[in-house]
Amino acid sequence: MRIKAVIIAAVGVAIVAVAAVIGYSQWEGKPGALPDEQYMVNAINETYNQGKVEQLAAVDLLDSRHAFVPFVSEYGEYGMSFWKWEKRAWRLTRVDDNGMPHIWKLDEKDPRKRVFVYHIDPKDKMEQLTFYLLRDRNAYGHYDDFFYIPRIQLELPVTLAEQNYGAIRFPEEWAQLIEADLKQSRRPVNGLFGIMFGTQQRSMMYTGWIPDYFEDRVRSSRGYSKSGDVDVDFVPIMNESQLELAPEQSGE
Amino acid sequence: MLGSSVERGDGGIAKGGMAVPMSLELDLPQNIIAVTASIVGWTIVLCWIILRYRKLQEKPAIWKMILAALVGILSISIHVSVFSTAVKLSVVPIGVLLVFLFMRNGTWSTYRRFAWIGFFSSYILVATTLLGSWLHQTVYDKTDPATYLADIQQVQVIGIHPSAGHIGWDQAMFEKRLPDLLLEQSYNTLDWYYESRPAGETMHASEKFPYALLGAKPSWGSGYESAVFLESDGKGLLIQTAERHYYFRSEEPLVKLEVTAHED
Fold it and tell me: pLDDT tens digits for B39-87?
């Protein structure tokens, strides 16, 4: 009887210990102060294989757990690094060797926590860049089952005159539109013999950007490398011809 | 898609899977009637257990009884849509089998019935869910725009297309016109599409619904979530829900429309 009690006690202690270890390893901890710049430079140099960091352009704390750190390399490349507070420490989660615009989803579920990040090379002579939130028009009609999706085309221009890097949150209106859209397309109807996708699987929202150059010139696309995280999405560059325009005023 | 994968619930094909039908597909958050229906369902199950317990000659251990019922809930279930309400039907009583395996000697006959109550609780919940769903549709009129626009204190109208003009939002005016809106039974969305999209060589286009109404709250407890778009003439509302789209028209504009010439 006593042996049994000891075994039970031992098993109990072991379970508690394992739970504590797992709990601790998953525990995020309270975000502390950012590491100093030298630490950041060293960390980027370790990950980055295209030469050393010349200097950090900025350290931009986006919220308590995310920091955007654009940098310039010794070869004059304008890169970006992404820092995240994870499991009790600030961690470098991604390094890009150029600063073409990306979206960083600080919280996958919350469109308010999406940030455009970029670090534009001054040699590109870019005057302004414009981000777009888009959704394609779509329609369907069959008996009494019909839908219509209006086109969404919103723009967010950013001037590069003051600074060539930035971290710009999605505007509140964008977030609200995305939220409303997600709620509409969330639900496939489960039928007895499988999912019957209602007619609600439709158009999706997407983003893009268009640069404005000081001079007319054709940009050659450059090589691109990155290492790291999945919560950062590339923002495709668009063509003016993909945008719709206001109707022309019919001249009398 | 801009990150919605997390939201997706059981996107499965009538798939099997061990499932505890705790949250009987409450896909409408803050749907007060569905929540109530779920609570009523569980109360019935609890009452059933208590009644059974009282009837028994020799009383079983209460914790074992509850455990048997809880384990009995485990089952392989299928997802079915009944009257456009998604429900989960238990098919294979895995939990009952487990109780049987662990309690073969003698006690099985005592706890058997509680395991089965656990299994059939799924059907009780389906019944209350369907009842709730019916009640919900009766209480909240889906074809009344006011259901979706019950609280418009925070509403903001924004242009979502280059063809949008300037809108003067006047809440009092909108509220006054709201009852005049009539549900259009038939309309041709494909025509809207062809009229809205750029014609010919250029990208000039006038979107039929170039404005979005943001921040409207639905009737309390309805859980209806919608996206609302305003027609270019200010007289039509397109209300999109996950189930279907509604189109309402009014005789008079719902907002002050400033007809401005587009300068380009």
Answer: 999 999 999 988 888 888 777 788 888 888 888 888 888 887 777 677 7
Look up the pTM and report it.
Answer: 0.76
Give the minimum alpha-carbon distance from A50 to chain B in angstroms, rounded to a whole number: 31
pLDDT for residue B3: 31
From CA B74, how far away is CA B95, in angstroms rounded? 5
Task: Tell me: ipTM over 0.85.
Answer: no
Sequential DSSP letters for B102-140: HSTTTTHHHHHHHHHHHHHHHHHHHHHHHHHHHHHHHHS
- Cα–Cα distance for residue pair A142/B234, rounded to 1 Å: 26
CB contact under 8 A, A139 and B86: no
Residues 151-170 of A with CB under 8 A from B: 151-154
Is residue B3 in a domain? no
Q: Are residues B175 and B247 in the same domain?
A: yes
Domain ranges of chain A: 1-28, 31-242
Collect all residues of chain A within an 8 Å Cβ-Cβ radius of residue B227: 177, 180-181, 183-184
* Segment B215-227, tens digit of pLDDT: 888 888 888 888 9
In a domain, B43, yes or no: yes
Residues B130 and B86 in one domain: yes
